[in-house]
Amino acid sequence: MLKIENLSKVYPPSETALQQIDIEIEKGEFVGVVGSSGSGKSTLLKCLAMQQTWTSGTYRMGDHNITAQGWSGKRKVRRECAYLEQTPVLNVHRKALKNVLIGRTQQTPLWRMVTGMVRNDDYMGAMDTLERLGLLEKAHMLTSELSGGERQRVAIARALVHGAQVLLVDEPVLGLDPKSAETVMNTLRELALKEQVTVIAVLHQVELAEKYATRVIGLANGRIEADVKGRRLLQTEKQRLSI
Ligand SMILES: Nc1ncnc2c1ncn2[C@@H]1O[C@H](COP(=O)(O)OP(=O)(O)OP(=O)(O)O)[C@@H](O)[C@H]1O
């Protein structure tokens, strides 16, 4: 579904963050990206989300050659892939439901945005998504009253309501207590396994990647040094990754 060939990223003037990255990711895979600090994990995510320009490489999504399509390719990526930052960008003064509905604003006529009136099917869709993520009873609570893990799940709900088929998640459990981290990781795993949402998550803790992801990609100095499915990383692989 996603095919990346020979991706390189150099930040000006000369900081090489990624070199010759080749990856093919199937629909519904849950990929954990690990590696030491500065190995290029966030840059990889941003390049996949087209939030960073590519220095070189070819990007394919399904039958589409995104690289060759220029702006329309970029739009397609932005529509289908949601990039979720370490700390979700939410309006904490609004209810969880409102934050989820913000994901629908591109499809909402201006008069509805001005009057604040929400289409019934948008409302139902948002509530349905909150329920899938175990947040139904939090829908009408102010986002400031939610825990870090719940906020992270609100951000995921918003991405799904927006129509994202690929979640690019940077450190989804950063700063969360173990129980909340487990809930967020389980949510991501279930979305991948049961709903065929593709999840690519940068994870500092390799144990989390090994426990929840179906595939672990390890980066070192901007290169892929490990790419394993269905097994833990070997000690030698961890040494190559310096983790
Ligand atoms: N905007 C930028 N401008 C210049 N160099 C950058 C920029 N962003 C990242 N880099 C450099 O690119 C390299 C990879 O950075 P990146 O943030 O992708 O690594 P990371 O593996 O996500 O690190 P961490 O785990 O510490 O978040 C690093 O050497 C970093 O200093």
Automatic annotation (TrEMBL):
Determine if Repeat is one of this entry's keywords: no
**What is the top-level taxon of the source organism?**
Bacteria
Extract the coiled-coil ranges from the record: none
- Give the residue spans that cross the bilayer: none
Q: Which UniProt keywords apply?
A: ATP-binding, Nucleotide-binding, Transport
Domain named ABC transporter: residues: 2-243
GO terms assigned for molecular function: ATP binding; ATP hydrolysis activity
Cross-referenced SUPFAM superfamilies: P-loop containing nucleoside triphosphate hydrolases (SSF52540)
Do you know which InterPro entries this protein is assigned to?
A: AAA+_ATPase, ABC_transporter-like_ATP-bd, ABC_transporter-like_CS, MetN_ABC_transporter-like, P-loop_NTPase
Q: Which Pfam family is an annotated match for this chain, by its short name?
A: ABC_tran
Name the record gives this protein: ATP-binding cassette domain-containing protein
